[in-house]
Amino acid sequence: MKKITNNTLFGRLTMILNLLVGVFMVISVVALLRFDKINTQLQNAKPGYNNMLDSLKRVEQVIGDFDKKIANSQEQMDNLTTKIEEEQTAYQLTVKDKKADAKAKEEAKGQLEFNQNQLKSFEEAIKTDSEQRKLAQDTLAMFQRETQPVIDNYKQLEQEVEGPRALMNTFVMITICLFLCKVVMFAYWSFLNMKNLRVLAPWMKKSTSPWLAIAAWFIPIYNLGKPCSIFYEMWDETKYVLKDKGIISELNDDSQMEMVGAWWGLYLVAKCLIPLVIGGLFIGLNFWLLPICFGDTVNIGTFFGAKGLFLYFNHTLIAVLAIVIWLAYVLYESYLVYSYNKMNKMLVDNVKEVE
Question: Are 2 and 128 spatial neighbours (Cβ–Cβ below 8 Å)?
């Protein structure tokens, strides 16, 4: 003799977790809006701040180039000075040497004069480069005076945004953890109900295996539709068993598929919407990466990752939409769980044992 189990407790726990997910999701979005109020100023100031830094770097690069040119010219001058001293000594010896011919004296003199002219050219180059470097330094000083208020304001906004960001991230992580717990509880509740059906309906032994009610939620791609089909199968077969055993009368099931389909549609939209809002498209499509993406890998913590969409959409409107969709999802799922719990209780109350 096989007994069926009363699984309403796990259904109620699923509903409680759903309500907690809804509450903390609302808190997370509110925290996101509080963070966004400062972060919007930061994001708006960022292009100007970056442009100023680029301008400063370009001027600093120009100064660095002049430093290199001056250093190179000075090195060449030092080498020429040494060389000229050696040539002067050699030229004087040539002049004093009565055996040296005039051509040798003329070549030594010409080489000496050429190097002396080169030395003067390097002196002029150093003078010109030094003047240009001074102008670049003056320009840099002027830029620094003009940009310092903007840089200070940006740095202050960066500091002000850290507190709200950390608070928002904390609530987001709590929401994610609650959501994962809810998924596990819902999956386990479905698993127990599918086991009941295998006991009550012999044909179910050739149908979906109960363990898939859990595994289907965590297999990539497979989890985009299989949990929905399992829940629909569980709902449909349970009603059939209730009617087959005369526990309930004939009921109108015309909208049964639409009810489950609406639930799954809300789930898919909700699961992608909040991650999209707080982390951008990459996180929106990879929800399970959220717990490990609080570093520099993605720009988490801003509407749509602070990319193009950050500028185009009204953030308050998106936040309200996210709240409405998530509350609709968790409340509707709770309603379906509550409705199925009633069917489970009817089965337990009317079918004690099955051979």
Answer: no
Contact predicate 159/78, CB 8 Å: no
Q: Provide the Cα torsion 215, 217, 222, 228; round to 10°.
A: 110
- Is the pLDDT confidence value at 253 over 70? no
For residue 310, the surrounding DSSP H or E stretch is helix 308-312
Q: 267 near 277, Cβ under 8 Å? A: no
Which residues are CB-neighbours of 294 under 8 A, at least 6 positions away?
A: 169, 300
The structure tokens 């990879």 sit at: 286
Give the Å distances, CA to CA, from 49 to 138, 145, 148, 198.
21, 14, 10, 65
| 298-347 per-position pLDDT tens digit | 444 555 555 545 556 677 887 888 889 999 999 999 999 999 999 999 88
* Amino acid letter, residue 61: Q
Q: How far is residue 332's CA from residue 263's CA, in Å, rounded to a whole number?
A: 7
Instruction: Report in angstroms the alpha-carbon separations of 293 from 11, 48, 168.
Output: 32, 28, 14
Q: Which amino acid is at 18?
A: N
